[in-house]
Amino acid sequence: MAGSDGSLMSVSNETFTLSQPGPNAARQEAPHPHEVIVDPTGQYILAPDLGADLVRVFGYDNYALTLTEYESLKAAPGSGPRHAVFYNSTASTTEGIYLFVVAELANTITSYAVTYSADNKGLSFSKVYTTNTFGGKTIPAGAAAAEIEISPDFKFLTVSNRNDSSFQIENYNPRNQTLEPSDSLATYKLRSNGKLSFVQLAPAGGLYPRNFALNKAGDRVAVPLQRSERVVVLERDVASGRIGQAVADFPIEGELTTVVWDEQ
Q1: Which among 64, 116, 221, 223 counts the fewest CB atoms within 10 Å?
Q2: Nearest by Cα to 51 from 72, 66, 67
Q3: Over its length of 264 residues, how does the chain's per-residue pLDDT go in tens digits?
Q4: Distance of CA 11 to the CA centre of its chain
Q5: Residue 6: phi, psi to the nearest 5?
Q6: How far apart are CA 78 and CA 54, in angstroms?
Q7: Residue 258 burial by Cβ neighbours in a 10 Å radius (0-12, 13-18, 19+)
Q8: Whole-model pTM?
Q9: How far apart are CA 188 and CA 211, in angstroms?
Q10: How many Å apart are CA 111 and CA 63, to the nearest integer?
């Protein structure tokens, strides 16, 4: 983990512990931190832990290169928090801040109002809103929510769903007329009170969108499809937030997990 000056910090294995398996014993037999994110002030590092049903909170010191663990956000038992993103509803870096957490096992998005401690020793969270990653529709059996991202204009939030096969789309092989299954991307409009309004459930362009990325303009979404072994680029209407048809696709062998835009 890099400090803001480029030096390295590390988290020991002992930092992530679990006294006993979680409610979903098959998936929560041990801690499973999935990513780290930095809060809007740059003071804290958060790590969603699917195995422990926690979002772990750390303060860090760029000079001593040390981490201090503070009280974690406790997610719903068995929900499996996977990824998270901060949303600033105002121009302030400490007021009107919300944290949106996508849970893989429960297929939910939950928002929390964030409060900063007066002594800079942690964060507190107040649950505001929860919805499922299918816009309130029935969750398909086996679905597993994955990525969460806020649009560049801070107006929309999108999550990816794996293993739901919610759509049948035209085959990417022009010689094959058979329809193929596609998992989904769900888009919501962000509201200033930390709640969401459902906009759309759209085809992801194939199977297992573990990750996706919006370009700077917000008019394209690149999706690496782990089980389809290809990357697709989908058009996106910036004003409505709706995701449309594929404008490009290219096969890549192997289980794709991540894509990033290289834009100057």
Answers
A1: 64
A2: 72
A3: 444 444 444 554 456 778 888 899 999 999 999 999 999 999 999 999 999 999 999 998 878 888 999 999 999 999 999 999 999 998 888 889 999 999 999 999 999 999 999 998 999 999 999 999 999 999 999 999 999 999 999 999 999 999 999 999 999 988 999 999 999 999 999 999 999 999 999 999 999 999 999 999 999 999 999 999 999 999 999 999 999 999 999 999 999 999 999 998
A4: 22
A5: 90, -10
A6: 10
A7: exposed
A8: 0.93
A9: 17
A10: 33
Q: How many CB atoms lie within 10 A of CB 227?
A: 16
Joined together, the tokens standing for residue 117 give 């401690």
Length of the chain: 264
Please report the domains of the chain, with CATH numbers, ordered by start residue: 1-132 (2.130.10.10)
Dist CA 76 CA 106 (whole Å): 9
Extract the tokens encoding 252: 């890549």
Q: Among all chains, which residue has been given the structure tokens 């480029």?
A: 6
| E-assigned strand segments in 183-219 | 184-190, 196-203, 213-214
* Tokens encoding 76: 């719903």
